[in-house]
């Protein structure tokens, strides 16, 4: 049965319009971007097959556009559509930090770090620079390492903070293993960075650890 023959309240597009995008499953959302199915299967069935074979959703969409073109059932046109949709989402999230408003929602910074770092195959340490009113000045990846860790140099962070004219900074790094729990090394480097930044009157507001699931705020745990 084609999707157009389904009861109206079960069709992905009609369901989205009536109840919002949050009401759709991963397969239904993916099906909207696929547009049609393959080999006699409707778009939702095709999306379910893709997630079963290449998923979960994060694993499928973390592929580069070129890698996605090689997935059976996606190809060039669909890979471009999915990559463009992801980039729109990334830019929308970034605009919340770049439009000049004060950062009123610290969780937005965590989501931004997750968007920028989660797909990295190696550990990456980054910084979000803020002015005295906590408006974003810029985001920068400072250190890259191995799967197990990245060496962080406080002097480099201090130099970049001063070059940006920042009054505060939020830092973050990813755990390629997927486990977002802060390690003993994470706690130690956070303390070192906080001390180094305090010497130049710059506040360390938070340190986010990015893995699977929600970003972990070390400030929320009293570790900053």
What does this structure look like?
By secondary structure, the chain is α+β, with helices and mostly antiparallel strands. The protein contains nine helices and five strands. It has a five-stranded mixed beta sheet, sandwiched between helices. Helix 9 (184-198) links the parallel strand 3 (168-174) and strand 4. Helix 2 packs across helix 3 (43-54) and helix 8 (154-164) crosses helix 9. The mean pLDDT is 88.
Task: Give the SSE map.
Blueprint: H1 12-19, H2 26-34, H3 43-54, H4 57-61, H5 65-69, H6 75-98, H7 106-117, E1 124-130, E2 136-144, H8 154-164, E3 168-174, H9 184-198, E4 203-210, E5 216-217
Helix pairs in contact: 2-3, 6-7, 8-9
Which stretches are poorly predicted, pLDDT < 50 over at least 5 residues? none
Beta percentage is 5-15%
Order of helices and strands: HHHHHHHEEHEHEE
For the secondary structure, the number of strands is 5
Would you tell me the structural class of the helices and strands?
alpha+beta
Main beta sheet strand tally, sense and closure: 5 strands, mixed
- Counting DSSP H or I runs of 4 or more residues, the number of helices is 9
Helix content: 40-55%
Strand order of the largest sheet: 2-1-3-4-5
The average pLDDT value, as a whole number, equals 88
Straight-line distance between termini: 56 Å
Question: How large is the radius of gyration?
Answer: 21 Å
